[in-house]
Amino acid sequence: MRVVLQYTLFIRKGVGKFYSGKYQCKFPEKYKGDSSSITYRSSWELNCMSYFDKNPDIIWWASEPFPIGYRSPIDGKKHRYFVDFLIKTSNKEVIMIEVKPYGQTHAPKAQKRLTKKYLNEVKTWGVNQAKWEAAVEYCKDRNWKFQILTEKELFKKSPK
Fold it and tell me: What is Dmax (Cα atoms) for the chain?
């Protein structure tokens, strides 16, 4: 997606630990939903929100717009997944965007020892896969796109 990839050139890496807060729109008319109640759960999400809000190529955007049902491979039960963002670009594309650390976007390497950390990584990967498969199907039914943004996309250096 051209619009989001341009964004990757300009984000500065956040410093410090995980944080969250309320985002205040500069252009509330672009936000789908209650613009007085937008919550970010990481500096990466905050940077995305600021970009979507200020970029003229983003017609509208929403944060955690609606739940998507999926079945967890861990407990076999149905759960609800709230994707991070939904945007509409000036070229009429609607794109569902998930912001995740790169380490959570691929299967962990097999380990001989089943440590607590490794088991948690396997669980996270399995749940993420189930969520993303549900999101891809949801998007396919609507002729939308699904994209995962990681630090590799968010913190690319601009060419000199």
Answer: 53
Does the annotation count 13 as an active-site position? no
The DSSP line for 72-130 is: -TTT--EEEEE-SEEEEETTS-EEEEEE--GGGSSPPPP-SS--HHHHHHHHHHHHHHH
Specify whether 45 is catalytic: yes
Residues forming a β-bridge with 99: 149
Half-sphere exposure of 64 (CA within 13 A, CB side): 11
List the one residue out of 55, 56, 46, 68 whose CA is nearest residue 131.
68
**Mind listing the pLDDT tens digit for each residue in 96-152?**
999 999 988 989 998 889 999 999 999 999 999 999 999 999 999 999 999 999 998
For this structure, is 100 an active site residue?
A: yes
Query: Domain residue spans in the chain?
Result: 2-11+18-154
Name the active-site residue from 100, 123, 145, 156. Answer: 100
Q: Which CATH class is domain 2-11+18-154?
A: alpha beta
User: Could you give the CA distance from residue 57 to residue 152 in angstroms, rounded to a whole number?
Assistant: 22
Catalytic residue among 45, 53, 98, 131: 45
Give the residue, 156 or 73, on which the prediction is more confident.
73
